[in-house]
Amino acid sequence: MSDLKLFNSLTRELVPFVPVHLGEARVYSCGPTVYNYQHIGNMRAYVFADTLGRVLSYKGYKLTHVINITDVGHLTSDADAGEDKMEKMAAAQGKTAWDIAAFYQADFEADLARLNIRKPAHPKATEYVDAMIEWGKEIADKHCYELDSGLYFDVCTVPEYGRLARAVTEDGEGRIEDVDGKRNKADFAIWRKTPAGETRQMEWDSPWGRGAPGWHLECSVMSKALLGMPFDIHTGGIDHREIHHPNEIAQNQAHEGCGDTGARIWMHNNFLVERSGKMSKSSGEFLRLQLLIDKGFHPLAYRLMCLQAHYRSELEFSWEGLQAAFVRLKRMVRQFENQRQRWEETIVYLISEDGELKSSVGPFEDMLLYPVVLEKLAAFNEAVSDDLNTSIALTVLEEVISTNKMEVSQKPWLLAKMLNVLGLNFCEISRNDLRVRPKGIVITEAEIEAALAQRKEARANKDFATSDRIRDDLIAKGVEVMDGDPLGWDWKLDI
Ligand code: AMP
Ligand code: ZN
């Protein structure tokens, strides 16, 4: 048993991680509904899931991680009301639902890569519709009933429905909207029939008529197909603790024929919130990763911002907070880069595909014999083993980056290990890469440097009027001059 402890939402307590299959970790994360861009709140869920996966790999488990792609079945409400998200967007854009799905899936995958999230398996729900129909057939008699609008799951047929949500009302989850004829408010659709006289772009034949699967079914079916049941960990945002995951659990219980909830551990990241309102569309600017980049932030600054908070804490988004994370990132990258030049004079380092650092001069096996290395690795390990305490892990990382108590042969090995767990790929980026140019800024770096040289000369001649004029000119072009910048940046592009 490893020393890794994780918070299980089912029992609301920390539990040791004990794998179902010796030496393996199988993780399923609810993925995006690809009807629109993902906002950075959504991406927090994947930074968290990726960090969990990286910690499991670091602990030596062979990781299988699935993030499904919901390309069918998700209604505008998590319950069974509203329109189909995919079809609604397809109609709005005059495209097919399939084109919409392909476009936004590609965009999502690009964002994963920009956040240095390792590429997990991305199965699409539409590829599993036959398996969903089979699952429905197997549970229909004992657990479901048919209405004009589809096949519904009766939540009273499984023990302790809603245990995960700790639902307190008699009828189950209070937010669930009504569908005529449902036996219990919390009952949900396994299959949604296409209303008579209508056709959907995405529809299939089933024993309950032509239609589409209910959204919750796909995760039960895909997690079992790809990971087996029970599997180790199921993740998602905290909103899924209320409806989607209790419904998955109910389906799993019905299908597996016992009290088994499907996954041993259910983990939920808290929300990224924005003071002025919702993350997405409603507050004017749609906060997605591309917007951050357009404003001159490197995507890793957002990853770092997520890692600075515990995944179970709400994280408030602000541009100031992001800027602070960006400054911290720059400082680390600068220190890392300065030292890397020295290391590379001594040893040729190679980064293997799984992110481990190898050297051209032999293995690092004796590294743990050095107390200074052992002490830092122990502190780092303790942090990440404590329900992924990444904020403490980051401080240990910074201590290692800045210490001068380690030798050239020791530091890179330790740093590569830590950076890999945190998904900060400093071996692949340089200070220059962090100078992201905001969209719409036309001035070139050469022009900025030339203006700064003139300003320096003016200041040397005590011609402060000229110096101020140059500074104001630059500000007007979006360039903030930073005299005595402790990070060694003389200027930054203003946002
Ligand atoms: P969706 O596409 O709505 O199913 O969301 C994809 C993932 O993002 C799910 O795991 C959600 O729980 C999660 N999520 C949605 N909004 C936020 C947010 N503001 N902060 C963190 N996670 C979120
Ligand atoms: Zn799901």
Task: Walk me through what this model shows.
Helix 2 (85-93) crosses helix 3, helix 11 runs antiparallel to helix 12 (411-422) and helix 13 (445-460) packs antiparallel against helix 14 (464-476). With 495 residues, the chain is of the alpha/beta class. The chain contains 14 helices and 16 strands. The protein is globular. The strands form six sheets. The chain has a four-stranded parallel β-sheet, with helices on both faces. Strands 5-6-7-8 form a four-stranded antiparallel β-sheet. It has a two-stranded antiparallel ribbon with strand order 1-2. The chain has helices at 40-58, 85-93, 97-114, 129-143, 215-227, 244-256, 289-294, 299-308, 319-346, 371-385, 390-402, 411-422, 445-460, 464-476; strands at 5-8, 13-16, 24-29, 62-67, 144-147, 150-153, 188-193, 211-213, 231-237, 263-269, 272-274, 315-317, 349-351, 357-359, 479-481, 491-493. Helices cover 40% and strands 14% of the residues. The chain folds into three domains: 5-269, Rossmann fold; 289-428, Isoleucyl-tRNA Synthetase, Domain 1, CATH 1.10.730; 440-493, no CATH class. Adenosine monophosphate binds next to helix 1 and strand 9.
